[in-house]
Write a structure and sequence with these properties.
single chain; alpha/beta; TIM Barrel; 9 helices; 8 strands
Amino acid sequence: MRLVDSHCHLPIISQDIGNIDDIVLRASEAGVEHMLCVSVDLETFPTVLATAEKYPNVSASVGVHPNTESKVKDPSVEQILMHCDSDVVVAVGETGLDYYRNDEAPESQKSRLRNHINAAKECNKPLIIHCRDAARDMIEILRDEQAEQVGGVMHCFVEDWETAKAAIDLGFYISFSGIVTFKNATELKEVAKKIPANRLLVETDSPWLAPVPERGKENEPAYVRHTAQYLAELRNCDSEEFGEITTENFYRLFPLAKPQKSRKP
């Protein structure tokens, strides 16, 4: 099966399961031809960038997570744009709203999200959106800031169909992590059946949320195969076809991630 892991955090994966060379190799052997290594703060972004520059099958994003402990609590548009010039940086994020953890006031998160959207529009790169227990505010801000100009992905999606539909109408893709394979994710499975095939992505969000049958282990990009196979069965789709569809969806959304001969390991 041809696959892409549309969202992972390679530098955060524990050395207990091997160095990044080993992790990338296992992913490749599992059919994962590309990985998007996602930034969570500006302090550790250089490591994310270096990882993408080292491996031709890894791309990077730049952004500050809504619940980060970053010293740069509300990066300006200019601060975000400073890191967007490289061709290996294919997206802005992850950014978004997370009211579940309540680590930060909603207004601070909203301000940060707006800055990321405006930076994405300025550099013309799609957004990686994190949303948890904040769907109404999230969709409202995406509409107000005209995020449809660049589109993006609702990563690790766990919201309802109405939220998915609203995001799709704004030009966003919906990405499912290993959560959809969990036994108690009944409502999410029903949402996953409804997503148009041309708007589907798969991810690990590794090192978290390992899918069944690896649940309980530290997650890694090679495990995206389990989520893809589960979704293919859930949607009554041939697994090879599902892999092709989600891989091509990824390159359509992130055109800079397409393999480039000039990039060498």
